[in-house]
């Protein structure tokens, strides 16, 4: 993963120059940090609400990855910050387009972080 990331930064450096490469590194670190902070705040709990946030979901129609989500992640459409990393499960490997796309928390994860959704403890 590290070797691939270095290769993508080198490609950005060659194609667009040092500022684009720095933006790529900065964006990647911001997304990674946001993802890990999301985990430390309780994202993504296993199971459906009211006890979970659909982690490791395989069958729901809103899951974008054909193989389902991987572990404590939710793979919805777009660059969801709480999706599994590239190359996890049957996800494609990292690409320059993947790193340069805008990142966001999906609606359920954002509602949880804003306190609009409260997950109940399991019995």
Mean of residue pLDDT values: 78
Count helical runs: 4
- Radius of gyration, whole Å: 16 Å
Shape: elongated
Would you tell me the structural class of the helices and strands? mainly alpha
Q: Show unreliable segments.
A: none
Helix content: 40-55%
> How is the main sheet built?
none
| Element pattern in H and E | HHHH
Instruction: Please provide the count of β strands.
Output: 0
Name the beta content range: under 5%
Structural commentary:
The chain is mostly helical. Helices cover 41% and strands 0% of the residues. The protein has one domain (2-113). Helix 1 runs antiparallel to helix 2. It is elongated, with a radius of gyration of 16 Å. The protein starts with a helix and ends in a 10-residue tail after the last helix.
Strand-helix topology:
Blueprint: H1 2-16, H2 18-40, H3 96-100, H4 107-113
Helix pairs in contact: 1-2
Protein traits:
mainly alpha; 4 helices; 123 residues
Write a concise synopsis of the structure shown:
The protein has 123 residues and is mainly α.
């Amino acid at each position: 993963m590290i070797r691939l990331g270095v290769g993508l930064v080198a490609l950005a450096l060659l194609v667009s120059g040092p500022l684009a490469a720095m933006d790529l590194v900065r964006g990647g670190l911001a997304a990674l940090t946001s993802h890990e902070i999301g985990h430390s705040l309780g994202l993504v709990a296993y199971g459906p609400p009211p006890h979970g946030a659909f982690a490791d979901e395989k069958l729901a129609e809103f899951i974008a990855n054909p193989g389902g989500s991987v572990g404590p992640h939710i793979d919805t459409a777009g660059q969801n910050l709480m999706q599994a990393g590239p190359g996890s499960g049957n996800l494609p490997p990292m690409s320059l387009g993947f790193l340069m796309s805008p990142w966001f928390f999906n609606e359920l994860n954002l509602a949880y972080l804003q306190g609009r959704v409260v997950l109940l403890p399991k019995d």
